[in-house]
Amino acid sequence: MLGIDARTARYTWTAALILLLISLVYLMRGTVFMFIVALLFAYLLSPLVNMIDRFLPGDRTRTPALALAYLIFITILFVAFWQIGSRVVEEASSLGKSMPELLARYQQPNPSAPAAVNSVKAQVLERIKEQVNKNAGDLIASLPKAGAKILSVAGYLIYIVIVPILGFFFLKDGRTIRQHFLDLIEDRPWRAEMDEFLADVNLLLAHYMRAILTLSLAAFISYSIFFTILGIPYSLLLAALAAMLEFIPMIGPLTAGTIIVIVTAVSGGPILSALIFLLVYRVFQDYVLSPHLMRTGMELHPLLVLFGVFAGAEIAGVPGAFLSVPVLAMIRIIYRRIHTLRVAARRRRIEPVPTV
To answer: On the CB side of 294, how many CA atoms lie within 13 Å of its CA?
Structure first.
């Protein structure tokens, strides 16, 4: 009536609704991230829950298996923190107290080292001291704000309780939620496509979370053993730091390696041996262990991964960097689905109609 094409209007409204949805998700990014973390937590516990559910007798709900899986998980966490966490805290406290003395000792020129090395080392340390002195006044002035910030961060500790509760509901009613979502789609072909898409995403997230947890555990075990053998100070603390940073793709391991080299050099450890081990382990993980663990749905080019990590960190900080790889992998799944549908439609148009 007004000279507006109906198809164009439909596309315009669809684009507007998508932009509105993206804006709402961004405004609610804290809550959305909490639910995503709970979903990923559910994927971590899912194999244990399924295994217990198979062994429990009788026709029943998954609630007993969930309760037993949570009990086992909490027990493992308690034992791990009791045996390892206390030593990590002790080493962190010792490093914090001895750091000024270590820096002062490291500042002294090494008689056996070339003059150029001592000069570069002195310049780096002098630069660090200048930055510390320059920002000292600002740091003192911002202490009241920092105290308020600590209190606000302490409020986020409630997430430690909320995330397992949300994960419990995801594990208990995940299949029902998926079925309700599929029931909203009445068109049978689109419903079949959505069912296959959800199956691909389910497989992707399950493999990704188990792979990233395995990489983290492998890093902690390897670093702690070899650092202890090499006599590197604060071995357990550095191994725990490397394990935590494994959850941030590419940038996390690089950051961990830099910190390990700095701490080893300042504390007088075998810096060359640490460098050789870090390089060898990085090659082993990047070309053997990680491709084997992430072979399902994670075929992403390193440049694309780097772009996703930097872009995610710029948009949402550490959570964005952490979620960048699974988000890119899901976009890849959507692209492959659309490409497959287009190829199938093109073949149907090309195939000749059989004559009788």
So the answer is: 23
